[in-house]
Specification:
Blueprint: H1 10-19, E1 22-25, E2 28-34, E3 40-46, H2 53-68, E4 76-82, H3 91-104
Parallel strand pairs: 3-4
Antiparallel strand pairs: 1-2, 2-4
Amino acid sequence: MKKINILKKNYEFNRIINENKPFKYKNYIVYLEKKNQDFYTFGISVGKKIGKAVVRNKVKRRIKDIIDDFDYQNGFNCIIIVRKNIIFDSYDDMKKDLNYIFRTLFLLKEN
């Protein structure tokens, strides 16, 4: 992921979470904020209940890799919060679930 496409600031996370309703699906909670901008941004949150730092970073790397595989519309901020049972999912399961979430929220470009 490019740096322009990453949310990192705590106040950005808090603002998006407090102002928007969550979309919950299996092991994910997704907050989406539509904006008029020429780019899109993602934030990924993996809590300490998932495991030690190695496991959390592995989950984040997988999600970032899956995010890079798709082509998105511009003009949104998205936060993905991961639940505890994600450690039992394979890479293919994660990709299928995130693909479903992105299609349901109309984030992908139409071909």
